[in-house]
Amino acid sequence: NYRLTDIAASLGLNQMKKINSILIKRNKIAKFYNEKLKDLPLILPIVEKIASSSFHLFSISITLPEAEKVQKKLYNYLKLNGIITNLHYLPVHLHPFYRKQGFKVNDFPNAEFHAKSSLSIPIYPNLKFESQKKIVNLIKKFFKKY
Q: Which of 14, 75, 98, 118 is the most buried (most CB within 10 A)?
């Protein structure tokens, strides 16, 4: 149960006034990423023409055979170059509660593969174009090794 504080509610209401601008900026960044990263061994987010996305995250999945090893190397490479990424998410069936219920590794291989092969690159409304280019160029440079 989460009860929003008055301050958090006030901030949320203020953000709602900017929601269209925020979504436009996030979608523009996502479009840039999709255009520039499309030829790499990655699965990129797909948004059908009849749908839209808030691009809360921009998660990329590595399609190389050694995806888990490559994911960790890419994560560390970007971090060393000043780009903070996130790894997402431990599959639900591998959380302690569900393990106690009898779920185990390999019960849901797609979820496990996603967790081992994906990371989220920066995407937020005020991400400067120069930063976007730096992120793309670093990812391209990294994959030239593979």
A: 118
